[in-house]
Amino acid sequence: MNERPSPFRQAAGDIEKQIKKVQSIFDTMMMLANQSHISDAYESAFDLEAECEKLTLLARLLPQYTGHPLSVQQMERNIMQSVPISMRFTDEGWFVLSIPALLPKKEHGSPEYVRGFLYPAMKHFFDDRPRMHYPNSVIIFRHIYDRARPKRQYRDHDNIELNAVVDLIALFLLDGDMPLRCFHFYCSAAGDSDSTEITVLPLADFMDWLVGENILKNGEAPDLEKPP
Q1: Residue 130 Cα to chain centre, angstroms
Q2: Which residues of the chain have pLDDT under 50?
Q3: How many helices (H) and strands (E) does the chain have?
Q4: Closest Cα partner for 116 from 66, 188, 64?
């Protein structure tokens, strides 16, 4: 009778299969690029990114199968080192969170990937700080694209994974089901590197933020989105 593989070996086998899948997509992407099929190579790059995220999720689970009592804590430390998120409160009392990467596309099924690196960082940040609560708030998402890559198209905001970020902001900064009632504002800009900046502030301060960021045009405020 064949012995059933241990959870560790089974998880390692899943990782091995995913590595082969990632390698296959990478090879296809490079073949398309070398043959000057740049548009197809571009689409393949998104496939590669999605499968790499799945590989990361599998790899994050592996240490837990070792039985080490501090596996989760060590994994969270590794994540915070590899994705160096910065957080701060401004003098105005606004919360600002910066991620050194663009958020993934919705269709790639990446909410757990986002939660995996964002939750440990926010938990660590608020361990020795009181949790702020904004009863009437605006969550501002600014997607910053590397200006050194001018040919790349900006993505539609509707196609970017935002819900995982909103859920965690609600956990640490908002009251109850406030994400269903607070306003959202989305914008994109060029910068020195790809990144995502999220700001949470009271609704009454939103105009001040717009003026400070020089976003107002013709003295009119842009529309805010209020989730149903």
Answers
A1: 24
A2: 218-219, 228
A3: 6, 5
A4: 64
- Please name the residues in contact with 170: beta carbons below 8 A apart, sequence gap of 6 or more: 177, 178, 179
| Tokens standing for residue 3 | 């012995």
Diameter of the chain by CA atoms? 77
Distances (CA, A) of 86 to 125, 155, 171, 201, 206: 9, 24, 18, 17, 22
Give the contacts of 27 (CB within 8 A, at least 6 positions apart).
Answer: none
Is-above-0.85 flag for pTM?
A: no
Do 83 and 99 form a contact (C-beta atoms < 8 A)? yes
Of 88, 87, 59, the C-alpha closest to 74 is: 59
pLDDT value of residue 189: 86
Q: How wide is the angle at C-alpha 134 spanned by C-alphas 130 and 138, nearest 5°?
A: 130
CA Rg, the chain, in Å?
Answer: 20
Expressed in angstroms, the distance from the first to the final Cα of the chain is 56
